[in-house]
Amino acid sequence: MNVLGIVGHSDSGKTTLLERLIPAFGAHGRVATVKSIHHDIEVDTPGTDTHRHATAGADTVVGITPSRTFEISRQGKGDDESAGELPALRRQLRRFERRGYDLVLVEGFRQARCPKIVVGETVPDGTAPQIIAHVDGPDAIDPDAFAASFGAAAKTVSSAD
To answer: Which of 96, 98, 11 lies closest to 106 in space, CA to CA?
Structure first.
């Protein structure tokens, strides 16, 4: 499984670039995404059965609809000895690898040691090495050409830390 990071300052166009890359990479295999979020959000609707399951104390809740399956777990970046953004990312990448994904596009996680594209004028402080492209904005990359050529620069999940 390959991992590609997209990093940059707020409002630099990271999500827009991801929206352009996902279908291009999807033509070559299964694609998953992970987004670093720096504040808590409510991902379920209060009052729904799944929200009530979680509120009652379930560690993980899975909802299965006619067209979607979703999972909500209590384990985020955590407070224990394995806490932090990078351990949480590694756990999720291992899950994706077991599920047979070909590529995971990671938005944020600038300290992760994986190939990454920097979006915007400057490289954010603390960005780990392995920058394979630095672009001014999301339209500066031809997504199809980039997806076709990415394999040579890809890094496997076992060493993404």
So the answer is: 96
Residue ranges covered by each domain of the chain = 2-41+78-159
CA 118 remoteness from chain centre: 15
Q: What pTM does this model have?
A: 0.80
Structure confidence by residue, pLDDT tens digits, 48-91? 888 888 888 888 888 888 888 888 777 666 654 456 888 889 98
Secondary structure class of 126 (helix, strand, coil) = coil
Give the whole-angstrom CA distance, residue 84 versus residue 92.
13
CB 48, CB 120: distance < 8 Å = no
When the candidates are 3.40.50.300, 3.40.50.80, 3.40.190.10, 2.60.40.1120, the CATH number that belongs to 2-41+78-159 is 3.40.50.300
**pLDDT for res 83:** 67
- In degrees, rounded to 5, the angle at the alpha carbon of residue 93 between the alpha carbons of residues 143 and 40 is 90
DSSP state of 57: T
- Evaluate whether 7 touches 124 at the Cβ level (below 8 Å): yes
With CA atoms as reference, report the closest residue to 149 among 24, 30, 31, 34. 24
